Amino acid sequence: MTSHQIRQAFLDFFRSKEHLIVPSAPLVAKNDPTLMFNNSGMAQFKDFFLGNGTPPSRRIADTQKCLRVSGKHNDLEDVGFDTYHHTMFEMLGNWSFGDYFKKEAITWAWELLTEVYKLPKDRLYVSVFEGDSKDGVPFDQEAWDLWKPIVGEDRIILGNKKDNFWEMGDTGPCGPCSEIHIDLRPASEVAEISGKSLVNNDHPQVVEIWNLVFMQFERKADSSLVPLPATHVDTGMGFERLCMAVQNKTSNYDTDVFQNTIQVLETLSGKTYGAGIEPFADIAMRVIADHIRAVAFAITDGQLPSNVKAGYVIRRILRRAVRYGYSYLGFQEPFFYKLVAVLADQFKDVFTELKTQEEFVTRVILEEEKSFLRTLESGLKRLDVIINSLKEKGVGVIAGQEVFELSDTFGFPVDLTALIAREKGFQIDETGFQDALAEQKKRSRQDAAKEATDWIELREADGVEFLGYDFEETHSHIIKYRKVKTKAGEEYHIVLDRTPFYAEMGGQVGDTGVLIIDNGLENGKKVIQIVDTKKENDLFVHISRDKDLDDALQRAGIIVAKIDETRRDRIKSNHTATHLMLSAMREVLGTHIGQKGSFLNDEVLRFDFSHFSKVTDEELVKIEDRVNQKIREDIRLDERRNVPIKQALEQGATATFGEKYGDFVRLIIFDPAYSFELCGGTHAPSTGKIGVFKFISEGSVSAGVRRVEAVTGAKALEIMRQQEETLNKIKDLLKNPTDLVKAVEGLLDERTNLQKRIVSFENEKIRTLKSELIANVKKHSTFNLIVEKVDVPSAESLKQLSYELRDQVENLIAVFGAEIAGKPQLSVFIAENIVQETGLNAGKIVKDLAKEIRGGGGGQPYFATAGGSDASGLDTALEKAKGLF
Ligand code: ATP
Ligand code: MG
Question: What is the pTM of this model?
Answer without folding.
Answer: 0.69
